[in-house]
Amino acid sequence: MNFFVLKKPEEAGMSQEHELASFEGMMLPHLDAAHNLARWLLRNEEDAQDVVQEAYLRAFKSFHGFHGSDGRAWLLTIVRNTAYTWLRKNRAVDLATFDEEIHTPGCEAASPAAMLEQTEDAEAIRGAMEDLAVEFREILVLRHLEGLSYKEIADIAQIPPGTVMSRLARARARFKQCLADRLGKEQ
Amino acid sequence: MNCKEVIDLVDAYMDGELDPVTNQNIEGHLRECSRCDHAFKEHQAVVGAIGAVAPYHKSPAGLRERIQSSLRDQIPQSTRGVARGHQPQVPKKRRHSPVVLFETPWNWLGLAAAVILAVLIVWNLAPLLRRPGAEQFLATQLVASHVRSLMVDHLTDVASSDQHTVKPWFDGKLDFAPTVVNPASDGFPLVGGRLDYLDNRPVAALVYQRRKHFINVFIWPAETSEDRVTKAITRQGYQLLHWVDHDLHYWAVSDVSDNELMALRELIEKQTAQR
């Protein structure tokens, strides 16, 4: 029995080491994805890094609950939640204004032809993305920069799959409006 | 399909998220309606620019190391020897000197208590986080363990049909006393027992025979808060039966029928109750 008591902490330590190694092996490969999402949601490099670090700590604490195969989606969900918590606390104004319906575009203000010519304009596209409400930025990043399916997006953003479709359509329409606005100002 | 319906679905169409029939309907419409086709192509080009042109913010230099170092801080200092080798050294405070720990055996008990407490907390919280994926994962582990036990000539660590030989064998190897019975007269002779490792803990595996088939019965302690529903699962052609009795988890795994596992369960419960 003595043996058991003496042995226990070391065994626990080793298994924690083991768990950390396995956590890092599964989650660190998705660091770029985590950082990219946080950076887009927060629009600020320093805040993004803090949120990513916090998200990794949170993820490690609940890692024993992760038995799935999709580490990226699992991690991105935590990054997303951490980012929203951070925004609520530090920049509630970013979250306050979002209403799915308000952002529905009325009419197509932009001339599509003018936009087509500008699709190489990285600065205008980045700016138009950053003009969007955080929920729209989020869904465009998950779809276009991570290439995730509607199902995966629904899991990460915690919305029904049907909402993914409509929100994505609205986000794109709104993005086109913002892009047109920026191009209009430039000219 | 009219133009309005097509426009409503065009984003999902572009993303390849529609069922084949709707997909074909839209394709058909776009072939016939040049206005919609034109609008679709423009939409696709502008939206496609997001993926092609918008910056992908890769993780900057140093963030990875920062995260690794903060993760290391989550692990108790005294057990971090292995990890320290392969990470950049960041100045950090030591909470305890390990030397002091070795000199005071009571700290070991305290540490052990803390570890056991942590395990209990995790064990209690785990069920909230781990359904249903965890259960499937466990079922896979159980089947794998059963198959391995038959494959590599490692069915038993202690081969005996005498439960009074098998049961004491587990003493000191586990922190609980597994139930060992020998319902040989009912057609389930005990073959032996072995140690196994499942669900992140050492468990007892008792092996019973049913005609030419072997049944692994895995046993480990259950928490009072866990649900006690009996479950029968089929996985990869194996039958699994789970029940909880006297605060122990039982998982019987075999290629025998469901009913035979039920029969074994009754025999185990009956013989346990007699004591």
Shape of chain B: elongated
Distance between the termini of chain B: 74 Å
Mean pLDDT of chain B comes to 81
Helix fraction of chain B, binned, reads: 40-55%
- The share of residues in extended strands of chain B comes to 15-25%
Number of strands of chain A: 0
Number of domains of chain A: 2
Strand content of chain A: under 5%
Overall body shape of chain A: elongated
Radius of gyration of chain B, in Å, reads 29 Å
According to CATH, the homologous superfamily of the largest domain in chain B is MucB/RseB, C-terminal domain
What is the CATH third-level topology name of the largest domain in chain B?
Phosphorylase Kinase, domain 1
User: How many angstroms separate the termini of chain A?
Assistant: 81 Å
Assigned CATH class of the largest domain in chain A: Mainly Alpha
Strand arrangement across the biggest beta sheet of chain B: 1-2-3-4-7-6-5
Structure description:
The complex is a heterodimer of chains A (187) and B (275). Chain A contains ten helices and no strands. Chain A has helices at 2-27, 31-42, 45-61, 71-90, 93-96, 112-117, 122-131, 134-145, 150-157, 161-186. Chain A is elongated and about 60 Å long. The N and C termini of chain A lie far apart (81 Å). The model of chain A is unreliable at 1-10 and 102-109 (pLDDT under 50). By secondary structure, chain B is of the alpha+beta class. Chain B folds into three domains: 3-52, no CATH class; 96-129; 131-274, 2-Layer Sandwich (Phosphorylase Kinase, domain 1), CATH 3.30.200.100. A seven-stranded antiparallel sheet of chain B has the order 1-2-3-4-7-6-5, sandwiched between helices. In chain B, β5 (231-235) and β6 (238-245) form a beta hairpin. The longest helix of chain B has 25 residues, at 105-129. In chain B, 24% of the residues are buried. The model of chain B is unreliable at 81-103 (pLDDT under 50). At the A-B interface, α1, α2, α3, α6 and α7 of A face α1, α3, α4, α7 and α8 of B.
